[in-house]
Structure formats: structure tokens, C-alpha cells
Design goal:
This protein is mainly α and about 160 residues long. It has a domain of about 100 residues. A 3-stranded antiparallel sheet has the order 1-3-2. Strand 2 and strand 3 form a beta hairpin. Helix 1 crosses helix 2 and helix 3 packs across helix 6. The longest helix is centred in the C-terminal third of the chain and has 19 residues.
């Protein structure tokens, strides 16, 4: 596992192709859950993420899109502005039970937050959900890490 240093987080030219950005979004949606299952509406999420990067990133060549971010903080702000508002991503914060009951993510009557630790019993599968803040942070880290490891500065 490679760790990001403060130096790595200062400037990040993020180069992605469609499959990589979409794959990172889906990967984090799976990874941020207790049970590694595909997220609900994965196809819709993939389609909407593709639309976002096609509009927001500069097309470098037929396969790659690039966007410059001055820092991890700026990349994270972009993720919160452009990726997190996608309704199907926001809905990942709902458990399957809540989703089937038609509860909205922002519903003030939504159940209380339950804190767990590594010693807690795993929740039932129908209570599993995605922590959206962890999702956004991990997505930013993955995008930076991939660009450091692959070294897309050959464009």
C-alpha cells in the first residue's frame, strides 16, 4: 500500500479515462459498506458520472480527460460539488430498508445515527449503507494515488 505525503497532496493534475473515474466511484461505493455489494442503480451512477467528467474535464485525447486541481482540498470540493449531488449517490446513504420504505436522505424523521466500533457486531445486510463523507474522501485519495503511481505527466 502506498501512502500519500503532504508533498503529493499539494498539486494534482488528475487524468482519467471514463472507465477509471466510473470504476473509482463504484469501487468506493462498494468499499464504504460493511457488505461488499454493488451499489443500487450502478448503471445510472456510471452514466451520470460519465456526463459529469465529459462536461468538467478537458479532453486530452480520445481516451483521457484531464482537470487541474491545486490541492486535495480543491479536488474534494469539486467532488462535493459535482459527484455528491447525483441523487443515486446520495441515496447510497440509505439502508436497503430505508430505501424500500421510500425514506429520503434528508428526511428529518429518519432514524437515529447508531455509532459502532470495530468490536460491534456487523449490522444486518438490509441495514448496511454508504458513509458519504468517507466515500468522498476515499475517492479523492484514490484519484490522486492513481495519478502518482501511473504518472500521467506524459501528455
Amino acid at each position: 500500500m502506498s501512502y500519500l505525503s503532504k508533498e503529493d497532496l499539494r498539486v494534482a493534475d488528475i487524468a482519467v479515462n471514463g472507465r477509471k473515474l466510473i470504476a473509482n466511484v463504484i469501487y468506493e461505493a462498494i468499499r464504504c459498506k460493511t457488505y461488499p455489494t454493488l451499489p443500487r442503480n450502478a448503471e445510472i451512477i456510471a452514466f451520470k458520472v460519465k456526463k459529469v467528467y465529459q462536461c468538467e474535464f478537458e479532453n486530452a485525447n480520445e481516451s483521457f480527460y484531464i482537470k487541474h486541481f491545486a490541492s486535495r482540498k480543491e479536488l474534494l470540493a469539486w467532488i462535493y460539488e459535482h459527484i455528491m449531488p447525483i441523487p443515486e449517490i446520495r441515496e447510497l446513504n440509505l439502508s436497503q430498508k430505508e430505501f424500500e420504505a421510500g425514506i429520503d436522505v434528508d428526511d428529518p424523521g429518519r432514524g437515529e445515527i447508531v455509532f459502532t466500533s470495530r468490536y460491534s457486531k456487523d449490522p444486518p445486510m438490509e441495514d448496511d449503507f454508504v458513509d458519504l463523507d468517507a466515500f468522498a474522501g476515499n475517492l479523492a485519495n484514490n484519484l490522486i494515488r492513481e495519478n502518482i503511481e501511473i504518472g500521467y505527466n506524459t501528455f
